[in-house]
Amino acid sequence: MPTPLPPITPKHLYPIADDCTADKAYQWINQGAHLLWSGDYHNGIQLLSALKRRTDKKRKQQSGPINAEAFHRYRMFQSQKASLLNRLLIKVGPEYALDLKRAPDLRGACEAAFGELSNETLIPLRMVQGALSAYAWQNKGVHIPALPEPIHVRYGVFSPVRGEYLNLIQTAKLPANTQCAFDIGTGSGVIAAILAQRGVPEIIATDTSEDAILCAAENFARLKLQHAIRLVQADLFPPQPALADLIVCNPPWIPARPTSPIEAAVYDPGNEMLERFLSQVTQHLNPNGQVWLVMSNLAELIQLRPPNFIPYLAEKHGLRVIERLDTKPGHAKSKNTNDPLYEARAREVTSLWKLIPSAGATAKL
């Protein structure tokens, strides 16, 4: 479901337009004020970019390898930055009508992101920009080499832009005679779609998010894969007595607190989801079945987890590693030297860990 807009009740609201300088606007938002933009829409976007640049200049640059303390400082800065930038507001009417010069049509993008609107309200320009960008990506789709059609991603669902791990799913040798697979935390449905495209005859894809379930269903219909994939809204595993020959999971990679719903696909406080998955997975596995766990080592590189954490955690929960397939990232952030995590991202490795139960670990349901 769309995420409703948070109510905004500013204590100090300053109307500004095209004649307001970025320096003055930056001074006001740092003093706690909200700004109501009434000028040209595209000039408002330029002002937002100028405020972002001024905010970024305030961040202390990290020298040398980033560590856990520096990472948490960076996360705090990002949260404070979002709070500052969200103080530049626009006023929209019912159905997201926007009375600004050169304003785009907001209705489709904002209804997809935030739901229908029947009254006048204030909304951060930054959130509008994010909704428009997400809507454009939803309509365009993300090209996946292993699939005949792009994957289309709704607002609030994590986009499969990290294609390197998908190539691991596409090329890794399947367990012998795989008849049923689970895709845990399916999101856009991309992993389940790749498994179906590879010929796995029965797949159950789960997710806790209703948006993800709707998004995956749309993608499976577009790819004509509904016959092979069943969607279940569930926390981790489908209801008993289902058992699988292959269970695939691409869990959140970073053990830190998410600050928005979509960040739950990336951040897993205290490795809670990862621990629960590994502690329960053998109960849902057929004899001779395999678990495929897709994980980046970024958390180890920034010292949020100790080295060799995955083999340790697997052993703790009655599993052992039989194979590890590695790939280097190809996304834009891994090449951006201005990214605060660049030093770690440049050395990042994404792995597909193949796990099987240790002797006697598989439980009967």
UniProtKB/TrEMBL annotation:
It comes from the Bacteria. Pfam families: MTS (PF05175). The keyword Cell membrane does not apply. Keywords: Methyltransferase, S-adenosyl-L-methionine, Transferase. Residues 156-297 form the Methyltransferase small domain. The keyword Cell division does not apply. InterPro entries: DNA_methylase_N6_adenine_CS, N5-glutamine_MTase, SAM-dependent_MTases_sf, Small_mtfrase_dom. CDD domains: AdoMet_MTases (cd02440). This is Methyltransferase small domain-containing protein.
